[in-house]
Amino acid sequence: MKTKENLITPEQAAEYLGMSPKTMNKWRSTGENNIPYSKIGRSVRYRLSDLDAYIAKHSHNVEVK
């Protein structure tokens, strides 16, 4: 049996990513940035691992000289 992964609300996801909930809603409705989410009834939930993958994909290494 798989362990249940943490699911968080759009508001929590927005805080985790450092953006507004309005931006998360826009991205979800337009498909922009393609962050996976689950709909359970009328509730939307995000997996922390998907948010971490988004952060890793959009991280840039800066070399200090």
Give an overview in words.
This protein starts with 6 loop residues before the first strand and ends in an 8-residue tail after the last helix. The protein has three helices and three strands, in the order E-H-H-E-E-H. Strands 1-3-2 form a three-stranded antiparallel sheet. The chain is an alpha+beta fold. It has one domain. The chain is globular and about 50 Å long.
How would you describe the shape?
Answer: globular
Oligomer: single chain
Helix/strand/pairing category: alpha+beta
Q: What's the order of the H and E elements?
A: EHHEEH
Distance between the termini: 49 Å
Give unreliable regions as ranges: none
Average pLDDT confidence is 90
- How many domains in all? 1
Major sheet characteristics: 3 strands, antiparallel
* Radius of gyration from the alpha-carbon trace, in angstroms: 14 Å
Number of helices: 3
Beta-strand residue percentage: 15-25%
Indicate the percent of residues in helices. 40-55%
**Strand order, biggest sheet?**
1-3-2
Short description:
With 65 residues, this protein is an alpha+beta fold. 43% of the residues lie in helices and 15% in strands.
Which tags fit this structure?
three-stranded antiparallel β-sheet; alpha+beta; 43% helix; 65 residues; globular; 3 strands
